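Hey L., structure's done. Input below.
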Amino acid sequence: MQDLIENIGCFLARRAHRHPGLEALVVVESGVRLTYKQLNERANRIANGITALGVNKGDRIGFLLKNRIEYIESFFGAAKIGAIVVPLNWRLAPDELKYILKDAGCTLLFYESEFDSAIGALRESETNLQKWVRVGGSESRPEFAVQYDDLYRSTSGSEPTIRAGDDDPLFIMYTSGTTGRPKGVVQTHGTMLWASLSWNMTCDMRHQDRHLIVLPVFHIGGLLPLIAAVHRAQTVVLMGSTDPNAVRAVIASENVTVTHVVTTMFRRLLLEGDDQGTFRLRWVIVGGEAVPPSLVECAAARGIEVLQDYGSTEAGPVTIMSSEDAVSKAGSCGKPHFHTEVRVIDDRGADVGPDEIGEIVVRARHTMKGYWNRPHSTSEVLRDGWFYTGDLATIDSEGFLYIKDRKRDMIISGGENIYPAEVERVLMSHPHIREVAVIGQRSEKWGETPVAIVVLKDGTEMSLDCLISFCRGKIAGYKIPRSVEFVSELPRTVTGKVQKNVLRERFPGPVSS
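Output:
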């Protein structure tokens, strides 16, 4: 008898078998509505189509797509045949995309016609890409690419041969690195099964909930809810726009019961405009920054439970804070998810006492398998079954976790993670800059925005416009500093490390954009 393997693509097939007529997916922008039977058949067509293109188990496929139906069905289709998906942040510059595609060894790229110009630059670059599938934009079809609709129509909707599961990689999701280069986080079919189980066993996830996914599915914060929703037989309402008025309208029109948004958006959903649409929400998971108790109380008055989470691409879901404790434990990110162990340890590896600061370490079956092709980096953070987050925190006597410092000075702007070292690497290539440090400043609109603290070389000058112009095309727009401060020297420790805590105190903001 063949051993049972757990394949994430089979979640869709099993759901289609058990609930063929249940609405699986609503795509807001296109108006597409599909049952689980229909969505599974479409995923099968893509699985069979890319197999015909020569894609085999273990081959990497880049996804340069926004939140749309093609992303969803291609993800599950690729999972079934054992291909490894490489989600790409479509806000990245061509040079950044090139690095990821080459590092992952992608041989096939699904891309949206909106990004034709970026694809032109990539085709002139040295990558491993051999085949291209273009989504949408039927006009002026390039000769080098297969049109998605043609690929879809060329094959059948029969179930493909399942070629992967358990410890086989499902996707490689790149996170910006502290050395200035992103690393590929490898999550397997098995780790994502446990991530879904942990989430479903911790949160009030119900059969036939209507689950709004507005975060981009190239993020773990968008992809994991998708997998967990299919696992739990929910209807996914997929949306690309992040305009609060549009989100509020969709919550009302689609009878959305649960969703996940960044703190800044949730504040606007509750406090701006007509909030009648939010009344149908049972709960919302909020991340990106701490949620003020006043906002939790405002949501509670409208019958909405606010859950505040802490996690990462590497560790998956780590802790979550429920509304009932949000006021009395203000500032905490809660307790561990159901299938997750969390400790706070000192430099010797011993548990710290209550309210003492230490490093957060996580043990769970949903932590990553490792960093793609980086065994040394993997061994630095995965030790004796524990994932070392690099985040500093305290844990009180009741087990509530309090983050004290972000992972290596990470900036969160509008829900996007920005690692200063990546921006600093680009700025240091400017001929006028001697030294630079990038920190986050408070922003009413984005939560934080990056600011560059620059030491110029003698006899040189630079304006903010010049700095912004230099960064364009080298890094994504959201990573480009919104302001610049010129100083004669950077504060450093006796070992030469820049004291960013001193810079944050000296240049706190806020800025208006």
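Residues 36-52 form the longest helix (17 residues). The radius of gyration is 23 Å.

-- N.
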